[in-house]
Write a structure and sequence with these properties.
Blueprint: H1 11-14, H2 23-36, H3 38-51, H4 58-78, H5 80-93, H6 103-117
């Protein structure tokens, strides 16, 4: 819920050039783009996780979009034919864009990316592996633990404790 205390970003702050590609093209370039833009992605995700407010991470989000645009422009200059062939194979070989039908064209694209852009396709499980990300942003302030002064104290040790009316609740322990 938004109140008058919330300051929303302006339309100019939210307007960025978008990556206008098909799902097959994005899937075809996903592994290489993930490796190419890894630092920007990690910075954005760290900001979102630490600050828990998307309005404070707009600059990092713009950096991710700019990196993606830069990546696909470089791919278009150097490996356009291989990339298009791989994206078309993904699009037309199955209804859910499976990689298994297009391993030959994937190999051709991987070789082109390595030769021309120096980006090697990451091994299986690379993006799910835990990594340490070094950042220049200061760490957010630690939230102090709330202390409630009026918390009800426990019962004194000598308080009478009559047996349970309908038997013990700990029947499973007997």
């Amino acid at each position: 819920m938004a109140t008058f205390d919330h300051v929303l970003p302006t339309e100019e702050e939210l307007t960025v050039p978008e990556v206008s590609l098909s799902s097959a093209s994005l899937r075809a370039g996903a592994f290489h783009m993930g490796k190419y833009c890894e630092n920007q992605n990690n910075e954005f995700m760290l900001c979102r996780q630490e600050l828990n407010d998307p309005r404070k991470c707009l600059a990092e989000g713009r950096a991710v979009t700019a990196c993606a645009l830069d990546f696909f422009r470089k791919v278009k200059k150097t490996c356009y034919a291989e990339f298009t062939q791989y994206a078309n194979c993904l699009d037309k070989s199955s209804g859910d864009l499976h990689f298994k039908h297009c391993r030959n064209t994937q190999g051709v694209l991987d070789k082109c990316m390595l030769d021309n852009l120096g980006i090697e396709r990451p091994e299986y499980g690379y993006f799910s592996r835990a990594k340490i990300h070094h950042t220049d942003r200061p760490a957010p302030a630690k939230r102090e633990k709330k202390v409630y002064e009026d918390a009800t104290p426990g019962l004194p040790d000598d308080y009478p404790r009559p047996p349970a009316k309908f038997g013990s609740r700990l029947h499973y322990m007997m």
